[in-house]
Amino acid sequence: MDGMPVSDLSSAAQDYLKLIWSATEWSATPVTVGVMAERLGVRPSTVSDGIKKLARQGLVAHAPYGSIELTDEGREHAVAMVRRHRLLETFLVDVLGYGWDEVHDEAEVLEHAVSDKLIGRLDRKLGHPTRDPHGDPIPTPDGKPHLPEGTQLSAAAAGGTVAITRISDADPQMLRYFTQLGLAPDTRLTVREHRPYADVTTIRLHGPDRDIDLGASASDAIWVVAV
Amino acid sequence: MDGMPVSDLSSAAQDYLKLIWSATEWSATPVTVGVMAERLGVRPSTVSDGIKKLARQGLVAHAPYGSIELTDEGREHAVAMVRRHRLLETFLVDVLGYGWDEVHDEAEVLEHAVSDKLIGRLDRKLGHPTRDPHGDPIPTPDGKPHLPEGTQLSAAAAGGTVAITRISDADPQMLRYFTQLGLAPDTRLTVREHRPYADVTTIRLHGPDRDIDLGASASDAIWVVAV
DNA sequence: GGCAAATGTTAGGCTTAACGAACAATAATG
DNA sequence: CATTATTGTTCGTTAAGCCTAACATTTGCC
Ligand SMILES: [Mn+2]
Ligand SMILES: [Mn+2]
Ligand SMILES: [Mn+2]
Ligand SMILES: [Mn+2]
After folding, report:
1. Which fold has domain A151-226?
2. With contacts defined as CB-CB under 8 Å, which chain B residues touch A97?
3. How far is the CA of A111 from the centre of ligand 2 (A)?
4. A60 phi/psi in degrees, rounded to 5
5. Which residue of A has its CA nearest to B111?
6. pLDDT value, residue A49
7. What does the DSSP assignment read for A120-147?
8. A95 lies within 8 A of chain B by CB
9. Pick the CATH number of A1-147 from 3.40.120.10, 3.30.390.10, 1.10.10.10, 1.10.287.110
């Protein structure tokens, strides 16, 4: 009933499934061919073909011109790939001393080359971590994602004191900027105000007690919980 | 003068170059299309085509029906790949606790996915090792292989006391057999006799003081130096 | 509701790496 | 040394993944 191991899929197929799963992890916007092409850096026609093949293999559900969803089997593979990716990122930071802004691209390639055995050993070596360096939850081997919580900073109530749970790892450039500002998972801060039409959120960093203005892309990339 | 980085070559090209280099590391037999096809598990026609392309790129010297040799540039890439492979094997054993018979296939895939940065970090983490788990020398970053020494056990003078320097990692099955017998790099033993037409070499293992008979394939896979 | 813009699909090509079949060259053997 | 066996090359084909260009569908706007 659970089909082939995830290692039997091509790198492209593995990335497609992982992307579909990840795209719906933190938001409910439907996954479209355009979104996927954009994020994968390929043309829409390439994705359209690729999805058609995944649909034929029963890994995604997709009617022409419709949005794309994972089947149960597709989701299993997707979660396995997310687990690989996040464990590898954790390894690169914890064991090899990479910066958190340097790990994404390396993991993006490695995730296709490692065996399940290696991932198991890595997990043990790292002490079964539950969060990657960006605060993203690491799914367990049987596919249960540790439930994420929190809201985007852009949507957090003004006046509240919060802690950062995760920061989207999509843009390494932005991660370097956050490092400079002193923003990372577990950082505490107070949301001072949202200025709606300027799309600016002002926060006060605890500790150094500095005020920082963040634009929309930045405050969308940061997820927080009340403390 | 040193052309593209080794990461720009396809996995197939990387494996071809590494194989050519490795084949001449411990013996002087010329590298032929047939030998390569055999070891890579592909058909001769595939190798013939592949070598032609590498020759066009100036990485190997090859006249039709002749044997295959690396150019200086080809050798640089080959050594870089051998370094990757052996550092990865060392990592798998030293850090992740793999057995020495389990690492070869995993490294064979990983070597194509790691960046130069990762290899550098790994080397530092491992304390700049000079030998891989099979006793094979790990080339330095600038391509100088630590010079190998020793002879095949099948060619070692009877009566001599020797230490194992390396054991060919080509056959994991054989490695497991050696583990059972207590044979590994640095094991000391005495060569008792060679029985030529039976192709059997008898050795006495120091410590346990056991006598062992080895066939030709086994005594060709083990390299020793006098101690 | 109709039309233009945005989005998605299809068709046709390219490249890489594999294969088998047919052929060419070299090596081994009587 | 002639013939056969072995080894290597060429060529046509296939399957992935990508591309562009042409076409189809859906969406959003007047
Ligand atoms: Mn990837
Ligand atoms: Mn991450
Ligand atoms: Mn390899
Ligand atoms: Mn080895």
Report:
1. SH3 type barrels. (2.30.30)
2. 121
3. 12
4. -135, 155
5. A113
6. 97
7. HHHHHHTT--SB-TTSPBPPPTTS-PPP
8. yes
9. 1.10.10.10
